[in-house]
Amino acid sequence: MGLRHLAIIPDGNRRWAKQHRVNVMAGYKAGADRMLEVVGWCLKHRIPHLSGFILSKDNTRKRPDEEIVAIREATLYFLREIDRLKLNIRLCGDVRDQHRLWNQEAFSSLDCTDRRKAPLTFWGMVNHSRTDDLGFDFPYQHWAVPDVDLLIRTGDRQRLDGFMPMKIAYSEILFLSKMWPNFTVRDMDKALAWYRSRKRTQGE
């Protein structure tokens, strides 16, 4: 079965920043650059859907203001770059309870799904929790987004943190020890080879 929907939990930006003795803003900017490389990789391999973990409700409540701002700026940078490529962008999550520093208006202006000929749609999970997609008002349930085929989590954490539970029931899941800013398209090639080696029965 071909890979149509890739999802990524890009963990390790803060730890990478600490290891390299740079500020947290630089860590998340490096992470955004890696995600842009993955977008290019998806376009090359004609993968029509890419989902990314941006910010959970737990992050919103527990992370310091400095880090919320770093995530905000890195995410806006990333979304503006893929908007220039005329790709579809769909941001999913609870917009009613965003962090006071999040600037929802700026993000809403980049939410665009009417580019019918776009080769890729990016689904960004913002201020989400494990229970969001159990409700009928969660956006991606109402769009033609397929179930996730391959989920990759970097940063040496082997958990899912409530990420898209209804869409990953039959996903192949690959945990990697690399910090996200160290991730390369070569790692993506290896992940694709690993995915293709799996026998996917999906309950059969």
UniProtKB/TrEMBL annotation:
Keyword set includes Transferase: yes
Listed Gene3D superfamilies: Decaprenyl diphosphate synthase-like (3.40.1180.10)
Signal peptide as annotated in the record: none
Residues forming coiled coils: none
Molecular function via GO: ditrans,polycis-polyprenyl diphosphate synthase [(2E,6E)-farnesyl diphosphate specific] activity
GO biological-process terms attached to the record: polyprenol biosynthetic process
Keyword Translocase in record: no
Keywords from the UniProt entry: Transferase
InterPro entries: UPP_synth-like, UPP_synth-like_sf
Family per similarity comment: Belongs to the UPP synthase family. Z-FPP synthase subfamily.
PANTHER family: DEHYDRODOLICHYL DIPHOSPHATE SYNTHASE COMPLEX SUBUNIT DHDDS, DEHYDRODOLICHYL DIPHOSPHATE SYNTHASE FAMILY MEMBER
UniProt-recorded name of the protein: Di-trans,poly-cis-decaprenylcistransferase
Organism of derivation: Candidatus Doudnabacteria bacterium RIFCSPHIGHO2_12_FULL_48_16
Phylogenetic classification of the source organism: Bacteria, Candidatus Doudnaibacteriota
